[in-house]
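We modelled the chain as a single entity of 386 amino acids. Its sequence is:
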Amino acid sequence: MSATTSSSTLQEPLTPFAVLDRSVIDANIDRLERRLADLNLPLRLHVKTSKSVDVTRRVHREGPQPIAVSTLAEAEYFADDGYTDILYAVGLAPAKLDRVVALHARGVDLSVLVDNTDQAEAVAAASRVSGHRIPALVEIDCDGHRSGVRAESPELIEIARILHDGGAELRGVLDHAGESYFSTGAEAQARDADAERAALITAAQRLREAGMPCPVLSSGSTPTAHSPSEKGGMTELRAGNFVFFDLVMAGIGVCDLDDIALSVVVTVIGHQSGKGWILTDGGWMAMSRDRGTAAQKIDQGYGVVATLDGEIIPDLLMTGASQEHGILELRHGSGGELPELPVGTRLRVLPNHACATASQYQEYSVVDRTGDPTRILENWPRCHGW
């Protein structure tokens, strides 16, 4: 599926639905491209945020370039659009190797991610049986956030040896500074980026000293990608959230509210005036359950509320949500007045976590705030499933 043109406005589709502002997307892309040009470092775009070839084409204007995916469904979807250099950047479940091999048979250079000997042995065995040397990267734990092996761990060499000697291709090492999403300000994010880089350099040096290749050093997260830090030694940088940004990124200082390209249109369906509530038809199914700003200095509830043309309504938040109901009210401590929003009024809500919110929708309605911000120009489909 590909984009379709539209002649409608944000007043027409049934709510809730997802909206993208393409002028904001383009500005976000230009910002990171300037940063990477200064570093002379290539981007491996992580497509898990948008899961849309139409969004990805805003980055890859001259045709398919390297991408990272979070599901094999994404890999297959992007392969159908001509993408051949794909990194499956989630620890591999061995049962999925048949699909990995099938993609290789189609001519896709799909690399996989491992962090234990069981995974490595499965990849090596599948390589021998299929006749395809499946490329694999070893995941390095740079901050204790989630998965991976420590750069100094003996297990790193053991995993790499299984891949290298067992018939697979040891392509390199990868890490992800997941804790950077909790680091506020450029200084803290630069420290995360430095730790990310140091872990990969240490791991690569150990592999090379053990007589094994390590051509790829892949690092990345949206906060560390934008940090003013040294990137020497890295061979690629991964980032994906930056295309849309969200309230979590704004809360840690990576972007401003005006840089958030994704919103959800909801309709006012009622009021509870005694409680100071405005009810909408967009609950957590529309916005997701992600409450990523709850631990930040400023809690944005389930989302910041704007008018249909994108103007932020001061201190109005989605503070509560059930499955299909959203509760809007003034931020605690606000000295403002609850706006009069009659039943039928349409609003836009900016999300905490763009990846989670986008996943609720089959397509994006695309607008451009440099013109009429309520006119839908196109509809961009997106990938679903695993």
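As a brief sanity check on the tokenised model: Residues 4 and 138 are 40 Å apart (CA to CA). The mean pLDDT is 95.
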